Write a sequence for this structure.
C-alpha cells in the first residue's frame, strides 16, 4: 500500500511516500481502508519533537527516539472497516497517512451516511474538544460572555457555533486576520477581535461593552493567556486546552483567590479513556444533520503532498480541516 | 465604652484595653451593642502586617501604615441593634473588639432567637465560607471524595459536617493532632489523617482506598497544597480559599491539562459584594435549628484578654470559634 513514512525527526524533508505492506490488525483492532486522513498540529509538532500521544495506551505522552523510526504519522482517519464494510471514523494513534490503517475497535465510530469523511475528521478531535469545553468544563447559564481563541480554527470554529445553544449570551471570537474574523462572525460570533497580545485586554473589554468576560477557551498560553486572564470577571473561568505558543502559563493562587477565579485544564484524552467520545460525536453528527452546525472543511491534499499540507498548516496559510486522500 | 485599641503593628503588646467614646454610625450604618466579638486569624495577621479587608468598600485589601493607628480591631460581632433592639450578627470591618460597634446595614443580619451569639459568629464568615466551597465552587454528584484541610478549624469543621448533604460520598479530614482528628471524625469525616506535608499524598490515597481524590478544599498552600494536588484525580478540583502557610502555590498549566484538573480560587468577599451572605446564613441557621449542624464553639475571653485570645489562636492552642465578651 502507499503510505507516508517519516524517517526521523526534522522538517518536511523527513516525510516520504513509500510502498509498505498492509498492516495486520492485532487482537481488538480494526483494519480500515482509509478514504481521508486528518492532518493535525500534533502531527507537525511530533515530526519535529517526536512527542506523540499513545492513544492506544491510555494517552501517556511518549517521545520517540531515532530508534523508533521510521513511523507512519497520522492519528485520525475516515474510511471503511475491512471486516464489516461499515463507514467509520477512527482514532488510530499513528499510521493514518496510508491507504490502510488500524485502530482499536473502541476508538472506531460508525458514520451516518450523510456525514462526509471530511466533516467526520473535522469533528472527531476538534469537534469533540469544542463540545467538551462547554459540557465538561464551562457549564453556562445563558448569561455569560465566552471568549473563543483561534475562532476560525478547528476547535474554535466549532466552539463559536455551539456557543449559543450551550448557553452563551455573547461569543467573542479571537483571530489573527480579518478574513478569519469574518469567518468567525459568519459562524455566529457576536464580536470578532484581533488575537495579537498587544492591547488584547482592552479589546476584550471593549467587545464586551466595557465589562470583564466570564469564560475564556485558551489554547495559546503565553502573553495571550495573560491578556485574557486580565479581562476575566469575578467567578470567571479560563479553560486551558492547549499551549500553541509553547509558553505554558503559570498561575499564582493569590490571583485566583481575589475574584474567585478558576483555571481548568482540559485534555481530550481524559475523555477518551473515561466516558469516551460517543456522546459528543452523536450530538455533533445530529447537529450537522439538522443544519445547526457547519464544520469548516479546508483543502484535501493527495497523500504524496503530506509534507506540503503540514507546512501549510504550520504557516497558518489554511482555514478549515485539512485532509489527505490516500487514493490520489 | 471599653474597647481594645491597637496602637501600631507588632505582637500582642500593641493591644490595650482603653475607654473610648461610643462610635456614631454614619448614614447607612447601624450602631450595635456588642455581646460577642469574633476573633479571627485575619485579626492576628493584621496586627503584625497591617493588612486588612475593607469590607465596607468592596473588599479591596488595604495595608495600614503607622499613621492609621490607633485602630480598634475586630471584623465580626453579634449583638443588639441600638435602633430596633433586634439581635443581629454583623460584618463590621474593624471596631468589633468593643462594647459598641458600627456596621453597614446590608452587612447586618437578623438572628433567630435559638441561635446563640457564639454560633452566629462561628457561622458568619467561616460557616458561609464552608457553605460556598460546595455551592459556589465544587458542586458534587454524590460520588466524590472530598478532602477538608484544617478539619477541626472554623471553616473546616463546618465543611466536614456539610459534606454528605452537599453530595460528598466520602470526606477525608486533615488535622495536625490526634485530638483534632477525633473531632473531625465525630463531626462526620469518613477518615481523618495527619496534615503534615511529609507523606501526605500517600496518606490521602490510602484513606481513599488507593484511589486519587476528587475535590480538595485548600487553605494552606505551600507543601500541603503540593501534597494534595499530587493526590488529585483526573477531572479533580482544588479549591484554594486561603494561604495559611504564607506560601501561595503557583500552578503550571500543563499540570492542569494532563488530567483535566482545575484550580478554583475562592474569597468570601466576592460573595459578600455580589449575591450577599443571606442565602448561606439562612440555610446554615436552619441546619442548626434542625440539629443537622453543630458549629464548634471554643472559649469566650473577657474583652481585656484579647491579646491572649489572639496568641492562643496563633499558637493553635484552641479548638472552635473564639469570642470576646465586651461586658466581662
Amino acid at each position: 500500500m502507499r503510505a507516508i513514512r517519516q524517517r526521523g525527526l526534522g522538517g518536511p524533508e523527513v516525510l516520504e511516500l513509500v510502498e509498505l505492506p498492509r498492516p495486520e490488525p492485532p487482537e481488538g483492532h480494526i483494519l480500515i481502508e482509509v478514504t481521508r486522513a486528518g492532518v493535525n498540529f500534533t502531527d507537525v509538532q511530533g515530526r519535529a519533537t517526536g512527542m506523540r500521544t499513545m492513544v492506544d495506551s491510555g494517552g501517556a505522552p511518549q517521545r520517540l527516539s531515532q530508534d523508533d523510526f521510521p513511523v507512519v504519522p497520522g492519528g485520525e482517519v475516515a474510511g471503511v472497516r475491512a471486516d464489516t464494510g461499515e463507514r467509520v471514523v477512527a482514532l488510530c494513534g499513528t499510521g493514518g497517512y496510508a491507504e490502510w490503517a488500524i485502530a482499536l475497535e473502541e476508538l472506531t465510530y460508525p458514520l451516518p451516511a450523510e456525514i462526509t469523511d471530511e466533516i467526520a475528521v473535522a469533528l472527531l478531535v476538534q469537534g469533540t474538544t469544542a463540545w467538551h469545553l462547554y459540557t465538561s468544563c464551562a457549564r453556562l447559564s445563558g448569561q455569560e460572555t465566552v471568549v473563543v481563541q483561534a475562532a476560525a480554527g478547528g476547535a474554535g470554529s466549532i466552539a463559536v457555533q455551539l456557543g449559543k445553544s450551550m448557553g452563551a449570551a455573547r461569543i467573542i471570537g479571537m483571530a489573527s486576520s480579518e478574513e478569519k474574523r469574518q469567518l468567525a462572525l459568519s459562524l455566529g460570533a457576536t464580536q470578532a477581535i484581533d488575537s495579537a497580545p498587544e492591547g488584547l485586554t482592552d479589546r476584550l473589554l471593549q467587545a464586551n461593552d466595557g465589562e470583564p468576560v466570564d469564560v475564556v477557551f485558551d489554547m495559546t498560553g503565553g502573553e495571550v493567556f495573560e491578556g485574557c486572564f486580565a479581562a476575566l470577571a469575578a467567578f470567571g473561568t479560563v479553560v486551558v486546552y492547549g499551549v500553541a505558543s509553547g509558553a505554558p502559563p503559570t498561575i499564582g493562587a493569590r490571583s485566583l483567590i481575589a475574584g474567585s477565579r478558576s483555571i481548568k485544564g482540559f485534555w481530550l484524552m481524559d475523555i477518551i479513556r473515561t466516558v469516551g467520545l460517543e456522546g459528543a460525536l452523536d450530538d455533533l453528527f445530529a447537529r450537522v444533520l439538522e443544519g445547526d452546525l457547519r464544520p469548516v472543511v479546508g483543502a484535501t491534499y493527495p497523500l504524496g503532498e503530506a509534507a506540503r499540507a503540514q507546512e501549510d498548516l504550520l504557516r497558518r496559510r489554511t482555514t478549515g480541516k485539512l485532509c489527505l486522500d490516500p487514493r490520489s
About this structure: The mean pLDDT of chain A is 93. The CA atoms of residues 257 and 273 of chain A lie 32 Å apart. The longest helix of chain A spans residues 117-137. Chain A has two domains: 2-111+296-325, 127-270.
